[in-house]
Amino acid sequence: MITEERNGQVLILTLDNPARRNALGMDMRVSLQAALERAEPDPEVRAVVIRGAGDHFCAGADITGMNVTDAAGARERFRISHKMVRTLVKSSKPIVAAIEGWCVGAGISLALCCDTIVAASDARFMAGFGKVGLMGDLGILHLLPARVGLGRAKQMVLYGEAMAAPEAERIGLVDRLAEPGKAFEDALACAKKLEAMANLPIAFTKEFYARGLDESLDIERSYQPTLLLSEDHKEGKAAFMEKRAPRFKGR
After folding, report:
1. pLDDT for residue 200 is more than 90
2. Which of 42, 54, 153, 170 could form a disulfide with 144 if both were Cys (CB 3.0 to 4.6 A apart)?
3. What is the pLDDT of residue 145?
């Protein structure tokens, strides 16, 4: 699910399920977490690039695997997922995301966990959590306003509308635009610059900016399980699978 390769002291991690647009299922989250944990103590890894296989970065969570039946199971799901988020954000290694195609829902959360976001100029972003009866998760409610401001973050997560990469770059969601098909090449160039820098200042800077994340994730772990067990989420999943508009009833 996650493939690993090296380019000098840059570790390249690829979300490798192009048939499902690299949907971020639990297996992929665990695999990504394991790869990051292996990299953390390795002095030969000075920077990381995360990309998606095929034409897209990540289509969000794998909705076919969201079969939560009780609160304990839902909380355990987020304990595992939040371990990945914390590792990404608090890693001593600088992490660069390379975005091609769609970056949706949990895919945006994953990109926001990275330190630099490079996107192809024809990439698209959408925080469509509400369309399946859920709130934003995997840290997006903390990380997105830190990048784009509270007002813009609200518009993205409340309306769930698609956003083109140039607009994402204008508001600060994206750091650098690349030519279509060149996001990885440009992301690798960024990682190479970071590879040559002193590692301790980067680690300390990341630790400083990670303040407040734990509290946000704890609240998320309290709220989102309730929504996962709601009738509206069941309806949202059914509507998504049946390719129709959902009929939410507020319960």
Report:
1. yes
2. 153
3. 98
pLDDT in tens, 217-233: 999 999 999 999 999 99
Q: How far is the C-alpha of 153 from the C-alpha of 244, rounded, in Å? A: 26
Asked whether the predicted pLDDT for residue 79 surpasses 90, the reply is yes
What is the Cα 216 distance to its own chain's centre? 16
Domains of the chain (ranges, CATH numbers) = 2-180 (3.90.226.10)
CB 107 within 8 A of CB 58: yes
pLDDT at residue 210, as a whole number? 96
Q: What are phi and psi of 70, to 5 degrees?
A: -150, 165
For residue 244, the 8-state DSSP code is: S
β-bridge mates for residue 97, sequence order? 50, 117
Mean pLDDT value of segment 115-119: 98
- Dihedral (Cα; 42, 46, 49, 50), 10-degree rounding: 30
Report the side by side order of strands in the sheet with 47-52: 2-7, 10-15, 47-52, 95-99, 116-120, 176-178
